[in-house]
Hints:
The protein is of the alpha/beta class. The protein is built from 14 helices and 8 strands. It has helices spanning about 5, 50-60, 85-95, 110-120, 145-150, 155-160, 160-165, 165-170, 180-185, 195-200, 230-240, 255-260, 260-275, 280-285, and strands at about 10-20, 20-30, 40, 65, 105-110, 125-130, 220-225, 245-250. It has an 8-stranded mixed sheet, sandwiched between helices. A hairpin with a 2-residue loop joins strand 1 and strand 2. Helix 3 crosses helix 4 (about 110-120). It is globular and about 40 Å long. It starts with a helix and ends with a helix.
Amino acid sequence: MTSKASQAETATFSIEKIGGRTLRVAHWRLDMPSEHPPILFFNGIGANIEAAAPLAERLTERGFIMFDMPGTGESPDPVIPYNPVTMAWTTSELLDHYSIDQVDVMGVSWGGAMAQHFALQHSARTRRLVLAATTPGMLMVPGNPAALSKMADPRRYIDPEFMSEHFTTLYGGMVEGSAAKQSHIARLKPPSPRGYLYQLIAMLGWTSLPALPFLKKETLVMMGSDDQIVPIINGRILAAMIPNAILEIFDGGGHLFLLTHTEESVVKLRAFLDAAVTTDKQRKAS
């Protein structure tokens, strides 16, 4: 069995040409009957599909689709830069390719910004929104300088020893030597220099803050209390600005609380996605 298979056992991988871009795509259970719309997942900066595969594997009752951003994982380098507008359009074209009309949109960290933008730009295709360890973009409260300096160092992707040594400083909420840490490091594949640069500059000057009051989708904001990269105040801002948002804080969780608090995260995620639709009147009365 290949490494790819062991890291994403039930995924179907393909290389797709979508909207003028070539993307490596993975999807789970799209051909299985389900009462739930699929989850469209946007990953963190520089992260490949395998980094989030454990979450997709756990949500066995629904479909799941994601892709490597240009220049990350096994998607080829981008030829020209992109921005949230063009990448949201490309993502919508990808959903058309798979005949998917509506999705629950989820994003982590950098991907949380993309998830916000997709939900704003393609509201009709978005049922519910999940934002994990993320911010409203440029207008954010910055994290721990020690963590941010390590995050900017490319060795975190190409040097496993560097990543292991500085893992707790980078992400917080992680027990030294834990199986979750080693498992995450093993799944990472370094992005290309151009891919990482283009992903960084894609969000330069971007913020969702002025648009958040008009984001009417029911939204779950998930934050770790020990996140060194995205302080918890950013989640409070998102939850306060989005009219139909709820905030879940994972005590002791760092930037990767989806890995360290997997059971709790999946329970909260399922409860939110499976809940009955509530009206504005019901929310005000609760």
